[in-house]
Amino acid sequence: MGDGPSPISRPAFFTQSKTPVTVQSNNPTKENDIMRLLLVLSTSIVSTTAFQHAFTPRTASSLSPLRLSPSYSPVHPAPRPKDANALYMSSNDVKQETSSGGTASIPNEIFNLVKSIVGAGVLSLPAGIAAFGNAPTAIIPAIALISLIGLFSGYGFSLIGRVCSYTGGKSYREAWSKSVGQDSSWVPAVTCTMKTCFAVLSYSMILADTMKALFVTATGMDITRTTALLGITGTTLLPLCLLKNLSSLAPFSLVGVTGMLYTSIAMATRYFQGAYKLGSPAIKKAAAVPAGKFLVDVSKNLQPQFGDLGASAAWTSPNTQFRSLVVDFNAPKFFIELKDNTIKRYNTVVGTSFGISVLLFAIVGSLGFLTFGSASSGLILNNYSQKDVLMNLSRVAVAISIVFSFPLAFVGARDGWLDLLKVPVDKRSNSLLNKATLAILSVITLIATQLKELAFIMSFAGATLGNALIYIYPALMFRSAVNNMGEKASKGLKREVPFAMLSALLGVVMGGIGAKMALGLL
Predict the structure, then answer these.
(1) How far is residue 375's CA from residue 286's CA, in Å, rounded to a whole number?
(2) How many CB atoms lie within 10 A of CB 229?
(3) Which of 31, 77, 368, 400 is deepest in the core (most CB within 10 A)?
(4) For residue 87, what is the enclosing H or E element?
(5) β-bridge partners, 19
(6) Is 475 exposed, middle or buried (0-12, 13-18, 19+ CB in 10 A)?
(7) pLDDT tens by residue, 208-231
(8) Is the per-residue pLDDT at 313 higher than 80?
């Protein structure tokens, strides 16, 4: 993780240094099956990343869950040439490289990025696998797809940070303004705002299901999703969203990653114990197999269901399509906060973080699917018995994580709308902020009470907004940045432009197909 020359030769787009120059279905069919898988796989990360960090709350820059330490001072990129169009281009001369950055070490950045990627969205992965297969071998192509999607997503994330390095941009919108142009900078701003609204909506939907289950466990009384959501929103979410200083919520961001690690262990424990396995009667000389001890407490439609559609169902599907996994559009923040933020160090953070995240996604997705098969719910915790103490603790951890992440994401959505409406910061009185909070939260809560298909929200948002933010926009910014360099751009950068644009084209095509498939989930 040091800065010395690497003994491994890397592609040009991973080794840029900076030298200034002047310039769910229970009965899946083969048709469209793989697309349904990708809809969920490619958006589960989004539900955590983009949801939490679309906008940093204005009240305190150190509030973001991305940070381990509350001590943070604004950082500024290395001095740029006076020319407003000056860019940083690649150079093999490490001694001439100018770097700066914040105070975050590589391990801290890796922890924070993994924490951002791996969140509640991972709990929808088993349903993604169930969308195209119902045999245990279906996890083979699923893991392959998760890995491929993670690879392309990591490239898109890296691309955003590199554009910031070349242009000096400190945010997604600023990177766009300094590369593509100021006049169209509203495009990514609108996309970020809408993506954050979908994030908050998904949080509300997860809380509705989770709080309903916890209430039944605690009191023995059954309540509706609407009642559960209205209760948690009125008593907890609204007061938190009305806070003018969210700094006290930052420590709770650690609950998310701890909760997901615990949930992974709990799922593995129940799977290897056979606590939810189907029983079978004695046949001839074969002894009877008793059902898992918690199976009787699970409704019929959520009990394990397996068939013979395995790995071959994915590879032989006539409409097999690949779609990209969208991640976080807060890459500029990670790049700026990294100490000695050279491209090499930044890519070390990105590569390691995405590798760890892909591993965790594969583990959780496989465990959930191997336990419940094609009956896997869009929120896999719904499959587990409400009398299962081990899994109830997972529900508690997920609920706490979302409750305290909710206001951070909500403030981003609210401030995003105020930005789009061009309300000056000095005009945003407490009264105006309270009214905006009540209006936006009311609309989102109302929608959440009516929608029950979490996979649709995640899939549609990922197919449209997510694809644009992680594939299409970064490629356009990268192409413009290289073009602005003129003759000073290296041959490696020029050769990479077509590859980046191919990634953008893939985002457009798969986004259109993904949106159509998402609508089919309703």
Answers:
(1) 27
(2) 23
(3) 368
(4) strand 87-89
(5) 89
(6) buried
(7) 988 998 888 888 888 999 999 999
(8) no
